[in-house]
């Protein structure tokens, strides 16, 4: 389990921009982990990282930077990103960090400043995204996170045109909390979804079986009931036969002698 530390106070002292009311929880790097110094420019060229492995990349404002990591069932991943501006800028800029699963479906963040805005006087901006717990299975129509490869994309969505291409320095770190394969995000069911409104009675003794009714041996028991479909079918057959005989007699030609 990775310990999550809060660095909001240090971020504010450095002049980084945070979303209003957002508390930043940053993952801690693993001891002895090698720092990654590159990033991809698309899903196909995304640089592979592991949980607890720090990333430090020099880039330009307007670049789309991609990284990928592996997620297993029961894990909760947290992404922390800090963008430091190398030169003064002319206006405010809005940055975003997006996480996609192996099917390129964008995964929602449950916490973190995912799209903060840095004003012109800020020296940097901090982003964060806490994903939902990875589930071992899900319905095909749902967008629940499943085990596999996940992609992180850092980009700027709104900035003045003169600031495009200015140098930046990106620090990224992905942390993970493994709960050993817990069930999911829905918690435990405290009460039945549909209460039992027709509850039975508690039996204190063994019930006595009712005696079986004796069958009646009536001579007319084999006859069909009056008004049943068998009666109407029989009556219809007889009438049809009579009508056929009468019609044949009326249309029959007399014999010549």
Task: Please explain how this structure is put together.
The protein is mainly beta and 257 residues long. The protein has helices spanning 8-13, 229-251, and strands at 4-6, 16-17, 25-27, 47-48, 55-60, 65-71, 75-85, 93-100, 106-107, 109-111, 117-118, 124-131, 148-158, 167-178. Strands 2, 5, 7, 10, 12 and 14 form a six-stranded mixed β-sheet that branches. The model is unreliable at 1-25 (pLDDT under 50).
Strand content: 25-35%
Specify the number of helices. Answer: 2
Query: Sheet bearing the most strands, described?
Result: 6 strands, mixed
Q: Taking all residues together, what is the mean pLDDT?
A: 80
Q: Spell the H/E element sequence.
A: EHEEEEEEEEEEEEEH
Described by its quaternary structure, the protein is: single chain
Summarize the amount of helix as a percent range: 10-25%
Stretches with pLDDT under 50, minimum 5 residues: 1-25
Q: What value does the Rg take, in angstroms?
A: 39 Å
Secondary-structure-based class equals mainly beta
Cα separation of the termini: 118 Å
Number-wise, the strands total: 14
What key phrases describe this protein's structure?
mainly beta, 6-stranded mixed sheet, elongated, 257 residues, 2 helices
